[in-house]
Write a structure and sequence with these properties.
Elements: H1 3-25, H2 30-37, H3 41-44, H4 49-57, H5 59-69, H6 71-91, H7 96-110, H8 113-124, H9 128-157, H10 159-179, H11 195-233, H12 235-242, H13 251-279, H14 282-300, H15 305-332, H16 339-352, H17 356-367, H18 370-394
Length: about 400
Amino acid sequence: MDTSERSILTVTCFGHFMSHFNMMFFPALVLPLTRHFNLDPSLIVPLSFWMYLLYGVTALPWGMLSDRLGPKRLLFAMYIGAGACAMGAGLALGSPLALSLVLGGLGLFSGIYHPAGLGLISRGVSRMSMALGYNGIAGNAGLAAAPLAAGLMNHLFGTQAAFLILGGLNLAGSLVMLLLPLRDPEQRAREESTAARARHMALGFGLLCACMILVGLVYRGSTVVLPYYFELRSEDLFRQLELLQGWMLSRNVAATALTSLVYVVGMAGQYAGGRIAERIDPRLGYLVFHSLAVPLILMMGYAWDLPLIVLSAAFFFFILGMQPIENTLVANLTPDRLRHSAFGVKFILNFGVGAFAVHLVGIVERMWDLLAVFWSLTAASAGIASLAALLLLATRKLRF
C-alpha cells in the first residue's frame, strides 16, 4: 500500500473499532446505572433504545451525504460528534431522560462509520478485499474490548469518568485524521457501462440485498442465543473445569468467555475471507462460505459441551468471515458515484431487519424450543446459500 492507502486503512480501522466500541459500552454499565439512578434494570436498558435505533436507520442518509460531501468530512464529524455525545453522557447522569437523549446522539454519529468508512476503503484502496478483512477484524476487536474496558473504567474511576474517557477516545480519532494525510479519493469518470451490464449489476445487487436480509437474521439470531445456549448445553464441560485447582469463574462468566473465544475465531475468518476475495471470484467465495455454514448451524442444535464449542467456532469463522467477501460484492455491484449509499442500504438491511431476529428467536423458543430456533436459523442459512448460488448464476456474464 502507498501512504494514502495506509492512511485510509488506519483511519477506517480506528473508526470501525470505535463505532462498535461505542455501541457495546453502555450494556456493561447497566448495573452501575441501576444503582446510580436507583431504578430497576428493566428501566435502565431501554435508555439505549434511541442509540441503537439511530445507529441502524441513519446508515442510508449518512451514505447519501458521504456521496455528496465526501467520506473524510463525515468521518471527522463522527469522531467529533460521538466524542461530544459520550462526554455529554458523563455530564447527563442527573436525569435518565437526558442520558437517553445524549446516548441517542452517540448512536446517531456512530452510525456514520459503515457507509462512510467502507465506501472509502472500496474507492481508495487497491487491495480492497484484504483491507476490508483487516477492517472487519478491527470492528470485532471493538465489540470484544468494550465490555471489559467499560467495566474496568467504571471500577477504577466511576461511571461518569468512564463516559468521559469514552468521549476522549472518540475525539482522538479526529486528531488521527488531522495528523494523517488523508484525502477523499477522486470520483472516477462515469464507468463505461452498457444497458445489459447495468441490468446485471442491478439484478445482482437486488439478490445480494435479499441475502443480506437473511444474513442479518442469522447473525443476530445466533449471537443472541449463543451465551445462554453455552451455559445450558455445557454442563459436563463446566463440571470438569470446576475440578481444576484455582478455578473461580461462575458458569455464566465461563459461558461468556467461551462466547468471546468463538468471536476471536470469527476474526480469523474475516482475515481468511479478505484473502479469499482477492484470490477467487467473490461470488464463488460467498457461496462456499454460506454453504459450509448450513450444516454447522444445524449440528449446533444437537451438540453438547466441547463439540458444541468447536462447531460454534467453525460456524462463526464462516458467518463472520464472509463479511469482507460480502462488502467486496457490494462494491463490485454498484457504481462508484453511489458507493457510500450502497453501503448505507446494506447496513439498514443488516442492522435494521436483523434486529427483528431478537423477537423471532423469542417467539420460536416460546412456541417450541431451542432446537426449533436452530432449525429456523438453518433454514435461513440454506436460503442465503440458495440466493448466493442464484447470484453467481444471474451475474455470470459480469467481470469484476
